[in-house]
């Protein structure tokens, strides 16, 4: 850089136009060099000295200071790194304290555990990478489109199911998180992904429900909200997270797909009016597709006498451990301020009760209209008979 100090100015240089820096007490022959000087650390350093009331230093002295500072840096780094224990996650202010810690039995145990964790992590990453590399990238949509017969379609589906990756019971549906228990996984999905199970208080099979969703995402590669199909698990997860589809479509009442995991029998209306007239088009009795059970209007099932020995066994699935997990999840949902909101803006339970109330009110209005019509026509008797005088 063409720099001249004030003492070096000649008569010729004074006559020529000069560009100066009053802070560093230097002059420049061109405006470009002056602008470049203003961007340098030397100029900034002298500005700080000026604010502190000190004299500016020359460019050579500034270079010497920088060189001395860089020589001292490695020693500082060695000290700071030498007094930190990575295995125990501890830091020490003195070298002697660090040396005493390194010799201790607790430190040696921590180092052994730390090395084991490191090795297992490396192995996990290696196996995951090998799995990803070994997994063939197949365009299943194209394969299904090319299949011409039903046998070929079934063959493609079977191949897809066989090659698809299975999600474990404790593995998150939307990311790579893996919990120790199902409850820990559910808590992660609730807090991290705002995933809530609708009407969880009526859910009877939590494990089966979560396995069904896992298969839908991992094997079927289908979004659980919009039901859009993809080619891989990664693409499905990316779509769900990008679109915010970490939820179940439940606005129009229970979905037929997931209704098997619910039991709403406790919400059925028990107040049945015996005088209420039945719709003549209503099918009173229905028989199941197998032809072994008769379904009554109340919903009760009457089995064939041939299967009496099985009905007498009265076997029931034990939902007790799952009910505990469901109750805990329900409490967490309430604590987070989540309620099952339906299409009307009310909760699902409120919506159901409102529909029942509206049906009762409609029945009362119908009976009132019938009564008023009878009074008006003087025809309140069910079977009118003329009086003989």
From TrEMBL:
GO function term, MF aspect, one: nucleic acid binding
Source species, domain of life: Eukaryota
BP GO annotations: ribosomal large subunit biogenesis
Coiled coil: 349-383
Entry keywords, A to Z: Coiled coil, Cytoplasm, Metal-binding, Repeat, Ribosome biogenesis, Zinc, Zinc-finger
Any matching Pfam family: zf-C2H2_2
Keyword Cytoplasm: yes
Signal peptide residue numbers: none
PROSITE patterns cross-referenced by the UniProt entry: ZINC_FINGER_C2H2_1 (PS00028)
The C2H2-type domain, residue ranges: 21-43, 85-107, 223-245
SUPFAM superfamilies registered for this protein in UniProt: beta-beta-alpha zinc fingers
GO cellular component, one term: preribosome, large subunit precursor
Compartments, as annotated in UniProt: Cytoplasm
InterPro entries with a match to the protein in the record: Matrin/U1-like-C_Znf_C2H2, ZN622/Rei1/Reh1_Znf-C2H2, Znf622/Rei1/Reh1, Znf_C2H2_jaz, Znf_C2H2_sf, Znf_C2H2_type
Sequence similarity: Belongs to the REI1 family.
Protein name (Swiss-Prot/TrEMBL): C2H2-type domain-containing protein
Species of origin: Neocallimastix californiae
